[in-house]
Amino acid sequence: MQNGVNLIHSLKPGEMKRLNIISLSFAASLLLLTSCREKDPGLKDYFAGDFLIGTAMGAGQVMDRDPRAKPFIIKNFNSITAENAMKWERIHPRQGVYDFSVADSTVAFALRNNMTMIGHVLVWHSQTPNWVFTDSLGKPLTRDALLERMRDHIFTVVGHFRGKVKGWDVVNEAVDEDGSLRKSKWLEIIGEDYIEKAFQYAHEADPDAQLYYNDYNNELPAKREGNVRIIKLLQKDGVKIDGVGIQGHWHLDEPSLTDIDESLSVYASLGLRIVITEMEINVLPTPPEVYGADVQQQAKYLESLNPYKNGCPDSIQTKLAVRYSDVFRIFMKHKKDIDRVTFWGINDGYSWKNNWPIFGRTNYPLLFDRDYQPKPAYYAVIKTAKE
Fold first, then answer.
1. Residue at 2 is within a domain
2. Mind listing the pLDDT tens digit for each residue in 114-142?
């Protein structure tokens, strides 16, 4: 370093001037390079004017455990859904005790980066502590007591984020595969109108928030009919509902493209906005005893059900790309009715499908690999935006 200083002091005025010019040119080049890199389009940019492109954001990403995550999210997504931080078991783990720490950090990140923040989820049969449904003696609550507990939770959580969270998954997965209402504690204790009450409370807590009913497999005819029945009852009773969430936990060969296409038309005909809320495409074999996306299901690990633990074969990458391309062409066909497409994870390494419905598998369901690199499916998807 001392030799460099001596060299600078020994330069003549003309030489110093040329050095300054070179330095300025180098600095300008760096700024231009940085600017170009910043202007490299992210995934969201290809669909600007069509619909938002979102991702689920987990606690590890929020708390900077992976330094690559946040810059990657900022570049590629313009909507954030709290993956777990707003679920009842995390945000309200014990009676009278709320923990907003991770949720607050998630919302702050989204707002700081001009992203649309989505709240997930207010009323769900899963990941809700048992104490919610029982009194101090462990006995089931009465209808009125559970309604009051639901109201208190919704008013506290939605009220806490009022004006910051754009939309809420108010009720999640209330319909069974045959279209009937799921047998849950909410249904058992309160009755069918628990869904209506949840939407009423959410609207009262934040009149400006968008309110969604969210479900998986609701593109399949029987379950779709159950979803439509709920929506029409809410609309008949004058209850605010803005949209339906189609989770999109799909596979390489199902559901059929026809079912997806028809479902988007059906839901749009009800005057609702459509949001694809938790999308990924599973590439691994599904155990025969597992159906849908109920997180309470778990199957036994078998090597035959984890065939790609050393890498995803090119043939599967190609199938995934074709499948994503086909699905996004349908989305683009219905873009006037779709507000958002959210992926459930930022890359393959963060997908819940690595541990569900079988723990410890290696799945490849998203557009980016474990090193944050775009896969063939990514290029297939962005191509649909240009067609």
1. no
2. 999 999 999 999 999 999 999 999 999 99
